[in-house]
């Protein structure tokens, strides 16, 4: 494998998760992308409890970590780029932990299990890592103005849909839609970064 392959792992992960979630959902009768979280595919007692982490969390964790490694390796003269790479690896490790520790069947339970609490914290770390990374990108001197504007736009979109996600969870309406749009903005940024560094 060449270094360019590692560079494209960020883009590959973004594409992979779209197909992975779609394939797992096809094996979950009645699954609703708008109303249900992605993590419900691997929730305790779900039809895809074991299958979803196998095709989503575990391979995605590897792809995120490989991309993060590539960023660190190529950023030896840039502390910010190395920090971004470390954050992508943290995102990958969070993805791994979230797959290993499933959420509870009821996403709105008032008394979550220990596994569900670990899953939730892993998800929070994943979210936070791809909030901080694009912020650092705004100050990276090797990035163009266009990429910095792209980073800012993706960050603002992600923040916006995180806010709407919180409202949707409170109302128990369609959190799946808001989760996908918010995380989609983060993965769009990661894809852009992947294409940029792999060229």
TrEMBL record:
<keyword id="KW-0472">Membrane</keyword>
<keyword id="KW-1133">Transmembrane helix</keyword>
<feature type="transmembrane region" description="Helical">
    <location>
        <begin position="121"/>
        <end position="139"/>
    </location>
</feature>
<feature type="transmembrane region" description="Helical">
    <location>
        <begin position="55"/>
        <end position="73"/>
    </location>
</feature>
<dbReference type="InterPro" id="IPR009339">
    <property type="entry name" value="DUF998"/>
</dbReference>
<feature type="transmembrane region" description="Helical">
    <location>
        <begin position="145"/>
        <end position="169"/>
    </location>
</feature>
<feature type="transmembrane region" description="Helical">
    <location>
        <begin position="6"/>
        <end position="25"/>
    </location>
</feature>
<dbReference type="Pfam" id="PF06197">
    <property type="entry name" value="DUF998"/>
</dbReference>
<feature type="transmembrane region" description="Helical">
    <location>
        <begin position="79"/>
        <end position="101"/>
    </location>
</feature>
<protein>
    <submittedName>
        <fullName>DUF998 domain-containing protein</fullName>
    </submittedName>
</protein>
<keyword id="KW-0812">Transmembrane</keyword>
